Amino acid sequence: MDIISQLQEQVNQVAAIAFNTFGSLQRDAPPVRLSLNYPEPPANPTEESANFAEQPKLMSAALVKAAKQFDALVAALPLSEVGEEAQLKRIAELQAENDAVGQELQRQLEAAEKELKQVQELFSQAADNCLNLKKPD
């Protein structure tokens, strides 16, 4: 897989981890009293609440690890050693090459269409000749 595809995959991985982390935190967080006007939320100490204390640490570690892998991939990108002028020149060269290839493809397409038309005419003539050879009984 090329470096750009790896970067895209890593961005998706970071997004998925962040999404799952925020969702899990929202789902599993214990209730909190928002204001003195509200009653104290019921405390339900369970095994899950004991795991909840460690869960954010594990999720944040996974998120940091994924972010570091992304940073490593970014660092592996090749650096551009040429200036903007050279890049624009290279883009113009590539566009000219693309135009030349496009024109060649157009010529080949026209030649193929011409050949197809000839084959269709020959087929039509052959079919007419076959029909003319058969005489109704």
TrEMBL record:
Keywords, alphabetical: Activator, Coiled coil, Nucleus, Transcription, Transcription regulation
Pfam families: Med21
Coiled coil: 91-129
InterPro entries: Med7/Med21-like, Mediator_Med21
Compartments, as annotated in UniProt: Nucleus
Domain of life according to the entry: Eukaryota
Similarity comment: Belongs to the Mediator complex subunit 21 family.
UniProt subunit comment: Component of the Mediator complex.
Job description of the protein: Component of the Mediator complex, a coactivator involved in the regulated transcription of nearly all RNA polymerase II-dependent genes. Mediator functions as a bridge to convey information from gene-specific regulatory proteins to the basal RNA polymerase II transcription machinery. Mediator is recruited to promoters by direct interactions with regulatory proteins and serves as a scaffold for the assembly of a functional preinitiation complex with RNA polymerase II and the general transcription factors.
Protein's name in the database: Mediator of RNA polymerase II transcription subunit 21
Source organism: Xanthoceras sorbifolium
